């Protein structure tokens, strides 16, 4: 008798479950809400489990799950027609392009970066997260989102420029690091030290 291979459940646990953290992180950035992100990932995993017989072992399970996630997100948005708050490109992009050498702070906290990222339109935020955070190639992102690769590259470029602009403006308005405080002046007599 031939030994049986892994069960469907074992395959799902070994191939799909390791990607839940990545899915949750991306869903959180795209929905803006931990609860909505958890619901979206739960539905993604449920749909993945139901369709796991259609998944070909040895192929890109992470990409397959992200495709499910983006399809669900798209359907949710079509149903509710609710849009997350976005910032107009006109508000954050002046008529000139920022140079790659635009002055940005040397260190940003994750909270500062995520706050700036949340100001990007969803189309720009999603491709930036998929490329930089999740490590997908432009072609994989194009396949996941069912858009041309040129559109992906354009959105990544615009997202980076807009993010740089947002971060530059934030540091000009509110410094990321508090300026040093000077010691209180000693009492003076008639204006002299």
Biggest pleated-sheet summary: none
Radius of gyration: 23 Å
Tally of separate helices: 9
* Beta-strand share of residues: under 5%
In the CATH hierarchy, what is the class of the largest domain?
Mainly Alpha
The termini sit apart by 98 Å
Features:
193 residues; Rna Polymerase Sigma Factor, Chain: A; Arc Repressor Mutant, subunit A; 2 domains; 9 helices; disordered C terminus
Overview of the molecule:
This protein is an all-alpha fold. It folds into 2 domains: 73 residues, Rna Polymerase Sigma Factor, Chain: A; 85 residues, Arc Repressor Mutant, subunit A (Orthogonal Bundle), CATH 1.10.10. Helix content is 60%, strand content 0%. It has 9 helices and no strands. Helix 2 packs across helix 3, helix 4 crosses helix 8 and helix 8 packs across helix 9. The radius of gyration is 23 Å and the shape is elongated. The N and C termini lie far apart (98 Å).
């Amino acid at each position: 008798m031939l030994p049986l291979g892994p069960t469907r459940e074992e395959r799902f646990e070994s191939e799909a479950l390791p990607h839940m953290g990545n899915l949750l992180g991306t869903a959180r950035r795209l929905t803006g809400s931990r609860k909505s992100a958890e619901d979206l990932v739960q539905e993604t995993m449920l749909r993945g489990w139901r369709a796991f017989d259609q998944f070909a072992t040895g192929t890109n399970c992470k990409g397959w799950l992200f495709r499910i996630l983006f399809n669900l997100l798209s359907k949710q948005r079509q149903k509710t027609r609710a849009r997350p708050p976005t910032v107009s490109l006109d508000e954050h992009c002046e008529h000139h392009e920022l140079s790659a050498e635009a002055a940005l702070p040397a260190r940003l906290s994750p909270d500062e970066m995520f706050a700036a990222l949340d100001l990007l339109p969803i189309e720009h935020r999603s491709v930036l997260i998929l490329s930089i955070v999740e490590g997908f190639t432009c072609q994989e992102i194009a396949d996941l989102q069912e858009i041309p690769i040129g559109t992906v590259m354009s959105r990544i470029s615009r997202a980076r420029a807009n993010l740089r602009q947002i971060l530059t403006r934030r540091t000009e308005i509110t410094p990321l690091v508090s300026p040093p405080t000077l010691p209180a002046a000693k009492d003076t007599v008639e204006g002299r030290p």
